[in-house]
Amino acid sequence: MSRVAIVVGAGPAGLTAAHELLQRSDVRPIVIESDSRVGGISKTINYRGNRMDLGGHRFFSKSDWVMSWWQSLLPIAAGQSDASPAGTLSLAYQGQSRQLATPHPVDAARGDRVMLVRSRLSRIFYRRSFFDYPLTLNRTTLGNLGATYAAAVGASYLKARLAPRSPEVTLEDFLVNRFGDKLYRTFFKDYTEKVWGVPCAAISAEWGAQRIKGLSVTKALRHALAKPFRPTSDTAQKGTETSLIERFLYPKLGPGQMWEEAAERVAASGGAVFLSHRVVGLQRSGTRVEAVDVRDEATGEVRRIACDYLISTMPVKELTGLLQPGDGRVTEIAGALPYRDFMTAGVLVRRMRGTGTTSTSNGMPPDNWIYIQEPDVKLGRLQVFNNWSPALVADPDTIWLGLEYFCTEDDELWSMADGRFVDFAAEELAKIGLVDPNDVLDGTVVRVRKAYPAYFGAYSEMHHVRAWLDQLANVFPVGRNGMHRYNNQDHSMLAAKAAVDCIIAGSTDKTSLWSVNVEDEYHEDSAVVRNSQRTREAA
């Protein structure tokens, strides 16, 4: 391999790019990761045999390429509800049903290196009651709210449909137009402001377009009414909004297992993955990066590595700082881009209470996660790791919970000592009636810096930074932090694939990278449409 690509970051985007370069080109990837493990925010934390998923990662995508890519690394376990013994998954796409086969048969030799097919359930906990999520105006919702309040919700929704806010500038505008002012203030406002730390009126509507563009009360109701008539074997769910999917794939040992497998394959195919190494300098000549300075975090040694390409998943503000634009405006905007940090308290309990669950002796709810809307606690979301994969829990008679908190680095939450934070999290669970403090057995804390690129403040001028980065011929920003976009992991992978496509084609046009967007048609979908149109025109 005569050419070298430095890939900064060993998360989904970085490892996808490295893997694709090795499979499809003569470019050798060298992956530089500052953490001691791969996966980025998709890594799995192992605490005394209990595994934590940071944020909850459903392996679901409307892209057949992504679904097939995942299965090529971790096939579906035999005996799963819609998987054959050969490890294939039936997918319906573009009106045609077919099998996506994996190259590795599922057998005893693969052991735990498999994917599970999981049912998805998440609910809202508000007023010490459970509401369906996505929110629908069904019997449960109406019963929990009461007739008078429910009537006000209906009237508010009707008003929003008849006279929507225009122009739709802020996230508040976006949510009110889709759910009505009453539902927005009841179920969305406080939670969203808990997540981001700023008012919804200060957040760009683009965040809603990025994450929940296709979701509305009407679509949620239509989805619920059609549920009895949908085939249970359609894991692809092509016609379903992402927020409404009911089944997904999941690595048996957590999301990090996928990226550990990817890293192994990159190394085995001639690439390199350096953990606990940090990029501390970029040597640029005009519009090209010619070398990267890398520091070994263990020894402090810095070495310079020449490169032909740079694929970066590091935060935009850090990348721009190392590139030294010479344009004061670009430097100022990039340096002020906002982020939200994230903490998870892993809490092990004997049993839960107040869940209304009778199917388990210890009161474990059936949810993958629960949105905590209660304004009297700081807890944002509660994961039940047992329901992601039983293999995440060391003792099946216990319940392994992830309590998610959204914060800013060095604020009161972030600065709490680990032991105090575990106690604080357990106290909040007890306060809302979900556990008895005497049933708490153990706990740990994980902090994630810059987990969520935010859509307010300097973000409104991010297009200036993008325009400057796009001028750099051999620099390809990908991934959530690399593009300052709140991507899911499949969208990060698609952006990485687009970067590799550019490298192979010798193109410096980065438009395809930035075109990957949540709920938009993916590149392959758009290509199918364009090809169909050309065929009709030719005929």
Write up what this structure looks like.
The protein is of the alpha/beta class and 539 residues long. The chain has three domains: 3-39 and 258-337 and 455-528, FAD/NAD(P)-binding domain, CATH 3.50.50; 136-213, no CATH class; 339-453, Alpha-Beta Complex (Polyamine Oxidase, Chain A, domain 2), CATH 3.90.660. It is 34% helix and 23% strand. It contains 16 helices and 21 strands. It has helices at 12-24, 64-73, 139-145, 147-162, 171-196, 206-211, 217-226, 256-268, 316-323, 328-336, 418-431, 462-470, 480-483, 489-505, 511-514, 523-538, and strands at 3-8, 27-32, 44-47, 50-53, 89-93, 96-100, 115-119, 122-126, 129-133, 247-251, 272-274, 277-285, 288-296, 302-306, 309-312, 339-349, 369-372, 381-384, 399-407, 440-453, 475-477. It has a seven-stranded mixed beta sheet with strand order 9-8-17-18-19-16-20. Strand 13 and strand 14 form a beta hairpin. Helix 4 crosses helix 5 (171-196), helix 9 packs antiparallel against helix 10 (328-336) and helix 10 crosses helix 12 (462-470). The longest helix has 26 residues, at 171-196. The two termini are 44 Å apart. Mean pLDDT is 85; it is low at 81-108, 219-244 and 518-539.
